[in-house]
Design goal:
- The complex is a heterodimer of chains A (229) and B (151).
- Chain A is mainly α.
- Chain A has one domain.
- Chain A is built from 11 helices and no strands.
- The two termini of chain A are 15 Å apart.
- Chain B is built from 5 helices and 5 strands; from the N terminus they run αββααααβββ.
- In chain B, strands 1, 2, 3, 4 and 5 form a 5-stranded antiparallel beta sheet that branches.
- In chain B, strand 3 and strand 4 form a beta hairpin.
- At the A-B interface, helix 3, helix 4, helix 5, helix 7 and helix 9 of A face helix 1, strand 1, helix 2, helix 3 and helix 4 of B.
Chain lengths: 229, 151
């Protein structure tokens, strides 16, 4: 994937994710609508590619206003990834040379790799994750399961043990999967499925849409820096 | 400005520590009070705010991929609860009270009856060996139900 196509695809996916998030706030409080109706309009403009530099800068400023309004992210990691993608896009637009543009977009790609690798690392150094106990706890008493019936999964300790190790190994080997095009594509399909499962089981739908918005950066990064020649 | 930068920094230089430790988990409960009993502190029963459904079908889960406002708001309220437990702030308490009141008015008008005030409390659920334990860790101020949304 070339640089321009990757940036354009990121704009479209990011615009869609922001539009989806923003609509959810339309029926809420007036002081939220003041932020999310303009955000929705800007997200549509970003998707259609209208004045993307100014639109991304305005979206970033709105992101700062949201941080102030909610005294932090509204939805933790997904809001942080949103700001990270916007931050990198803004740097791409204002960078004076192609080299600096690539560094800004490459930073997003590296952070995407880190988002999997370090999530795996912090789990595998925890004995509770290695024994499968931590994943049982997620289902047994954390706030995440979307229904009471899912709490029953905590009793399937063998299955959760296998799932925990599957997640940890996948997250840890993610950087190695950049070494070939086919392994990266398979890795991204598995990763997107993982986010989809998290969205279904834990209600984390915003993570799914925003993480896939960062995928074009890694596809470009691989073809630019790893698959040279 | 410095405060905003402090909030922005974890986004542009993230640590990516998802689910590293499964910490004790907060639960949000509320109680309704009547004007005559506000001073005595006598409350109706404590109710869980937005209890999760017994079961969700795959189709419902799929629908929530595109439309999930209540769940995302509940996740925000859990963040507010965690902020209160780490370092209590007026903002987090206000957000929780405001959103419980809005939910009661919008979807549970019959529940409020003659109630005039509301209070919430936070419980921490954690596993001790193989058993789950609950501990009450915070009581909010008592808030009139007529409190208007700040715009």
């Amino acid at each position: 994937m070339n640089f321009d196509d990757a940036v354009r695809l990121t704009e479209i996916l990011l615009g869609f994710a922001f539009a989806q998030q923003s609509i959810e706030h339309f029926t809420r409080f007036a002081n939220e609508r003041h932020l999310f109706i303009p955000r929705f309009v800007l997200a549509i403009l970003l998707m259609i590619g209208f004045q993307t530099t100014w639109v991304a800068i305005l979206l970033f400023l709105l992101g700062l206003a949201m941080l102030h309004r909610f005294q932090g992210p509204y939805n933790g990691g997904s809001d942080r990834m949103s700001l990270l993608i916007l931050f990198c896009l803004c740097l791409v637009y204002i960078a004076p040379t192609q080299r600096w543009q690539e560094m800004a977009f490459g930073y997003l790609a590296l952070q995407l790799v880190f988002s999997y690798f370090f999530s795996g690392w912090v789990k595998i150094i925890n004995p509770e994750w290695r024994s499968g106990r931590a994943l049982c706890d997620v289902f047994q008493f954390s706030t995440y399961p979307v229904s009471e019936s899912l709490r029953q999964w905590s009793k399937s300790s063998r299955i959760l043990f296998v799932m925990a190790w599957g997640v940890m190994i996948f997250e840890l080997i993610f950087p190695l999967l950049l070494l070939s095009r086919i392994s990266l594509i398979i890795a991204l399909i598995i990763a997107a499925s993982f986010h989809f499962a998290n969205a279904c089981l834990f209600g984390l739908n915003r993570f799914f849409w925003i993480w896939i918005a960062a995928y074009p950066s890694i596809l470009w990064f691989q073809s630019r820096f790893i698959m040279v020649g | 400005m410095r405060h905003i930068l402090k909030l922005l920094l974890p986004a542009v230089i993230p640590s990516w520590r998802f689910f590293d430790v499964i910490a004790p988990s907060p639960r949000l409960q509320f109680a309704l009070l009547h004007s005559a009993t506000v001073s005595s502190g006598e409350k109706s029963e404590w109710r869980e705010f937005r209890p999760r459904p017994a079961h969700l079908s795959f189709l419902q889960m799929l629908g929530r991929m595109f439309w999930n406002p209540e769940r995302n708001e509940s996740l925000f309220l859990i963040s507010c609860a965690e902020r209160i437990l780490q370092q209590p702030t007026q903002h987090s308490e206000d957000e929780i009270l405001k959103r419980i009141i809005a939910e009661l008015k919008a979807n549970h008008a019959g529940l409020t009856g003659n109630a005039t005030h509301l209070q919430f409390r936070l419980l921490l659920v954690q596993r001790q060996d193989s058993r789950l334990q609950q501990q009450i860790v915070f009581h909010s101020r008592i808030q009139p139900l007529s409190a208007q949304e700040k715009t």
